[in-house]
């Protein structure tokens, strides 16, 4: 009898550990979320933008997520569900000519049009 009970218990534990469904009574809720993506350009195409930091801030919690701009000016970042403000690293003499509004990401969303235009002041003569 003990052997049968032991086999039943070990089988139940193994199937519970491998089950893909949420665990009932879990203390934390993990939000899968989605992806924010966009392009960054400048008013002066000679100004490099690759490897600049993009910071995405959850306006509700203050949590931050970071990525960098690729050589083609694009960026992509996966974030949990929430509403986000997106900031871009600027250098001296630069300002934002265009920036996206805050974006709300639900589970599985892809928001691909969070584009920026960086205005570059011409050098002083």
Determine the number of helices (DSSP H or I, runs of at least 4 residues). Answer: 1
Low-confidence segments, given as residue ranges, are: 1-29
CATH homologous superfamily annotation of one domain: Immunoglobulins
Beta content comes to: 35-45%
* Total number of strands: 9
Quickly give the CATH architecture of one domain.
Answer: Sandwich
Q: What overall form do the CA principal axes indicate?
A: elongated
Class of one domain in CATH? Answer: Mainly Beta
Overall mean pLDDT? 81
Distance between the termini: 93 Å
Gyration radius from CA atoms, angstroms: 23 Å
From the helix content, strand content and strand pairing, which structural class follows?
A: mainly beta
Helical fraction: 10-25%
CATH topology name of one domain, in short, is: Immunoglobulin-like
Provide the succession of SSEs: HEEEEEEEEE
Biggest sheet character: 5 strands, mixed
